[in-house]
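FORM 12-B: Structure-to-Sequence Request
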């Protein structure tokens, strides 16, 4: 989120060249809704934004349990900004004007992920949800969770491929099989049901993320 058109262009150009997919917002209000409604790997957030300032955007994102890493950009080099930002849950902080190489390094550092375990054999846990693959049992907060066989298979597939963007077609083929003929809409419906059961807040999912124009990604 950045409101200086020149800087937006520069950032978009350079980051696209580096292979990142970029979406921009030039005010805090629309940026907030976008960042809260879609799954991004990282948010670059200017402090001085029209309609809603960067600190308020950050505060609201964290209040809604959106844990996307945030790097704050500010023209002011005051220490107080940094302290406020970090307190509100910013992950890093870059002072304008910045060297592009420095920003790229910070972005890369934030995107570095813990290695993914591709095939959990016996069980998996995320948040307060526990899955026992052998018994095909799922609990949340220690209480049994009633999942249909399809929901369980879908969750299992998500867990086995966590961190990867999965298209609806892939999910249909892998979870429903080639012989059945449901539509990709079926996937969305089952994802919605699964979110109701496993997410702390199904309206703002933090585990089964929607990847705009692509499909879904499991982040648990
Ligand atoms: Ca600004």
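FORM 12-B RESPONSE
SEQUENCE OUT:
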């Amino acid at each position: 989120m950045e409101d200086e058109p020149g800087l937006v262009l520069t950032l978009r150009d350079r980051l696209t060249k580096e292979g990142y997919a970029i979406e921009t917002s030039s005010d805090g209000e629309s940026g907030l809704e976008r960042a809260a409604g879609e799954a991004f790997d990282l948010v670059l957030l200017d402090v001085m934004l029209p309609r809603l300032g960067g600190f308020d955007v950050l505060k609201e994102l964290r209040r809604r349990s959106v844990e996307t890493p945030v790097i704050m950009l500010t023209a002011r080099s005051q220490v107080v900004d940094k302290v406020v930002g970090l307190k509100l849950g910013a992950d890093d902080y870059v002072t304008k004007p910045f060297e592009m190489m420095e920003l790229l390094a910070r972005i890369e550092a934030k995107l570095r992920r813990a290695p993914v375990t591709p095939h959990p054999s016996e069980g998996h846990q995320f948040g307060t949800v526990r899955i026992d693959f052998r018994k095909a049992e799922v609990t949340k907060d220690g209480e049994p969770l009633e999942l249909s066989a399809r929901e369980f298979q879908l969750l299992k597939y998500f867990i086995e491929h966590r961190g990867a963007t999965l298209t609806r077609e892939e999910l249909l083929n892998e979870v429903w099989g080639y012989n059945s003929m449901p539509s990709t809409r079926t996937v969305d419906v089952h994802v919605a049901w699964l979110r109701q059961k496993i997410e702390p807040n199904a309206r703002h999912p933090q585990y089964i993320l929607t990847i705009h124009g692509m499909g879904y990604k499991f982040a648990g």
